[in-house]
Description:
This protein is an alpha+beta fold. It has helices at about 35-45, 75-85, 135-145, 175-180, 185-195, 230-245, and strands spanning about 5-10, 20-25, 45-50, 60-65, 70, 95-105, 105-115, 120-125, 130-135, 160, 165-170, 200-205, 215-220, 225, 250-255, 265-275, 275-285, 285-295.
Amino acid sequence: MPDYQVKIVDAFTTRRYAGNPCGVVTRAEGLTETQMQAIARELNASETAFVFPSSVADFRVRFFTPLKPIPLAGHPTIATMYTLANEGRIDLSRGPARVTQELTIGTLPVDIGRDASGDIRVVMTQAKPEFLRVLDREALARSLGIEASDLLEGVPVQVVSTGTPQAMIPVRSLEVLKNLRPDFQRLGELERSGEFFGAHIFALETFDAGNRTHARHFAANAGIPEDPVTGSATGGMAAYLWKYGLIRDPSYTVEQGHIMGRPGHVDVEVDADGDQPVQVRIAGTAVTVLTGTMTV
C-alpha cells in the first residue's frame, strides 16, 4: 500500500493555529477520486488539496471538503502554492513567479512572491464574477437564527460565483454576526434549492479598524459547520460589494475567523468597468503546521 506525504498548512495567516487549516498532498499521482475523498474526510479540514501533473497548466489541482469536491477554493490555493514554493517546485530565487493551475472550471493564474517581511505571499485570480439568483431574505435569516431586520437594507441576498457559487448575506453589524445560530438542516435545504455551496454572512464592521469587512461562513452540505477564513467566498463578496456600491476601493483587507478564535486576513483586489466587477483577486500568506504520511 503506497504512502503519500500530507501537510497541514494554515492559510491567510503567518501564525500557526490561526487562519484556515488545509490538507495539502503535493504529489497525488495514483490517487482515485474515492481515495482523495477518503483522505479529505480523514483529515477533516474544511478542504484538502491534491496536486497532479497537467498537460495544459503548471499544475492540476483538485479540492475536496470532508463530504464532496469543490470546483474552486481560496484558502487551499494559498496553502498549496505556498507549499509548492517551499518545496522548490515553484522557483522564487529570481523573484516573483506566475504559475497556472488547472481546475475543474478551467485554468487560472496564480502569482507567488515574497512580502516585505520575506513571507511567501500568494495572489489568486478567480473566475469572472457571476451574479446569480436572488434569495429569500426571510428564509435565509431564519436558517441563521436571526431576524430579517438584522440583514442590511437596500441590497439583495444573492448567489455570487467567482468559480464557486456562494450566498452573499450582508448583515447590519458585527453583533449580528456574533449572534448567528445556524439551523444546519434548514440551511442545507436552502443550499440545495438555491443552488449555492455555502452561506457567506458579512458586516461592514470589524474587530480591526484597518479592515473593511468581517465574515462568517457555513456550508452545511459540504460537512463544514463553520469555515474559519474563506477565500473563494471572499472573492464573491468583493464582487458583490463593488456591484452594490458598498465598497468601491480597488484594494483592501478583510478579516474572518476571529469569532472562532482563528483570526485571518485576506487582501482583496477588484478590477471593474463602472459598477460591474470584471476580475477579483485574493491574496494571503500561510504557515506549515504538520508534515506526515498517510497510507492508502
